[in-house]
Design brief:
Rossmann fold, about 550 residues, about 35% helix, about 20% strand, seven-stranded mixed β-sheet, Pyruvate-ferredoxin Oxidoreductase, domain 3, 4 domains
Length: about 550
């Protein structure tokens, strides 16, 4: 059985604390979890909610239908009661009013005052919630003690026990698994992937929803022996990262669409100077400020075409935490090998979602630096930084390794040494040299992952953060038995890997692109690169994520 609980209220009402602790309880009990955060761009007030979907079986994505609502204010109940199942429940304090017989009044505020700490209100509700689901929570004191000093821990335990006395058990979720798992967000997985790849320098300016990458790395900086620099703006952030990479360390920056707009000229610098760089761009709805705390897939074409002129770059759309971890480590290797920028595209939906996954396998990680051997160079001799080679990749020497030998780079066009030039023949050589690297990169692309039926009647095509919803939607569609459904979800997206798509497009009767944007940017890219035209589109661009049920409904309409 899968359960879906919504915790909603205004910013500052303790929703995050309640959701965080309940997620920890579920994880310790061995349940599978998928969470959804929906929050407004303000410090206090507004309507925010946090959905927690959990089961003792695999949970792939969020759901629209609710088993329970924890309403910290009247607005939450009024907005979401229509999504509640007939046999669902509502927990609310006494100031929330409703004639709905599913409402269970929890005297959280009154109880917390009696305990002596009004901030323990969420622990009263947590006690009632765990009792309703018949959970063994013998470890609650341990969880509270990790967050609070002794006195506050005891106050929370007292409130928790009072909450457990307020309801009777109703649901039996069953036992969780004893198998070791991780509860992690995609942004945290990107940060861990960067550390596993040998990251030494991270610079960024805070911008929702990318900030949690920097926050996570900052917390781990001393332990990991890395430098994390909060720059004054995004221009400084990317230029710092380029400088650190030129100096020889693995570096990275992160931002969202507005910040990436400011980074575009420096992105071209990394391209023409052939400096390895990894950039995480966590998408939110634009243009300009747009909807700063919500989700969209509107920056695909922007990432592929950002900056003036022509130069190679790779764009990878991460699909979930596990994929993000391994793709981030791979991004560093590719940036190093081909001496070009690699852009990791995420989005707010998957970046903020907590998911239960298996621990990362560090045996799968390799670090490939692709640096020139300094022993091959004589002290004081001229070094051809942009030596013309058959594959377009020049030997890369770290500055200062060979005494008296300069490593020249420039944002102007340059000759093989790195000196500025306007010679037409040299310009042709350099453009063709950079292009050869891009052609070589195409040989190691990863094909999109296939979900559902191998030989499908209907092929759904998506990318990045729609992976979890497409996975569940394909399962639901195939259970209907009407047709055979499959999906291709792209991770590597530029250059576009097209072998599996061309193969499946030959037999599928209908091809539908599923994207969180207005124009169908992946569909346009596929038509440009392969000539394949989609039969229809399922598009959503209101800042809220697509759901599996929403995809199923739209596909059936098509």
């Amino acid at each position: 059985m899968v359960y879906n609980i919504l915790i909603g209220g205004a910013a500052g009402q303790g929703m995050d604390t309640l959701a965080s602790v309940f997620s920890q309880v579920l994880h310790r009990r061995g349940y599978q979890i998928f969470t959804l955060q929906d929050y407004m761009s303000r410090v206090r007030g507004g309507h925010n909610f946090f959905q927690i979907r959990f089961s003792n079986e695999k949970v792939k994505s969020h759901s629209e239908e609710l088993d329970g609502i924890i309403a910290l204010n009247q607005e939450t109940l009024d907005l979401h009661i229509g999504r509640l199942k007939p046999d669902g429940f509502v927990f609310a304090d006494q100031e929330v009013k409703s004639a709905d017989n599913r409402l269970i009044t929890i005297h959280a505020k009154e109880t917390a005052k009696e305990v002596g700490n009004i901030k323990t209100m969420s622990s009263v509700t947590l006690g009632a919630l765990t009792k309703l689901f018949g959970m063994d929570v013998s470890f609650m004191k341990e969880i509270f003690s990790e967050k609070f000093v002794d006195e506050v821990t005891e106050q929370n335990m007292a409130s928790f026990r009072h909450g457990q006395k307020m309801v009777e058990s109703r649901y039996q979720i069953g036992k969780g698994s004893s198998k070791k798992t991780m509860l992690i967000q995609t942004n945290e997985a990107i940060a861990l992937g960067a550390l596993a790849a040998g990251l030494k320098f991270y610079s960024a300016y805070p911008m929702t929803p990318s900030t949690s990458i920097m926050s996570y790395l900052t917390r781990r900086a001393k332990q990991a022996k890395i430098i994390v620099e909060q720059a004054e703006d995004e221009l400084a952030a990317i230029n710092m990262a380029i400088g650190a990479s030129y100096a020889g360390v693995r570096s990275m920056t992160g931002t969202s669409g507005g910040g990436f707009s400011l980074m575009t000229e420096a992105l071209g610098l990394a391209g023409i100077a052939e400096i390895p760089l990894v950039i995480a761009v966590i998408q939110r709805p634009g243009p300009a400020t747009g909807l700063p705390t919500r989700t969209e897939q509107g920056d695909l074409k922007f990432a592929i075409n950002a900056s003036q002129g022509e130069f190679g770059r790779m764009v990878i759309a991460v699909r979930n935490p596990e994929d993000a971890f391994y793709q981030t480590t791979r991004a560093f290797n590719i940036a190093d090998k081909y001496q070009l920028p690699v852009i990791l595209l995420g989005d707010q939906y998957i970046s903020d979602a907590l998911q239960t996954i298996e621990p990362f396998d560090l045996d799968k990680i390799t670090i490939e630096r692709h640096l020139a051997d300094p022993k091959q160079y004589e002290e004081g001799k001229i070094y051809n930084r942009y030596e013309l080679t058959e594959n377009g990749v020049s030997p890369r020497l770290i500055p200062g390794i060979v005494p008296g030998t300069a490593v020249n780079i420039d944002s102007d066009e340059h000759d093989i040494i790195g000196n500025i030039t306007e010679d037409a023949a040299v310009r042709i050589d350099m453009v063709e040299k950079r292009a050869r690297k891009f052609e070589l990169l195409k040989k190691e692309l990863l094909e999109p992952e296939l979900l559902g039926e191998e030989n499908m009647d209907v092929l759904l095509v998506g990318w990045g953060g729609t992976y979890s919803q497409l996975s569940e939607a394909v399962d639901q569609l195939n259970k209907s038995g009407e047709k055979k459904y499959g999906a291709l979800v792209f991770g590597d997206i530029w250059p576009l890997p097209d072998k599996r798509l061309l193969e499946k497009a030959k037999t599928a009767k209908t091809i539908i692109n599923v994207e969180q944007n207005y124009y169908g940017q992946l569909a346009d890219l596929i038509r440009q690169e392969t000539g394949i035209t989609m039969t229809a589109s399922v598009l959503k661009f209101d800042g809220r994520p697509l759901s599996a049920s929403g995809i199923v409904e739209k596909v059936k309409e098509v």
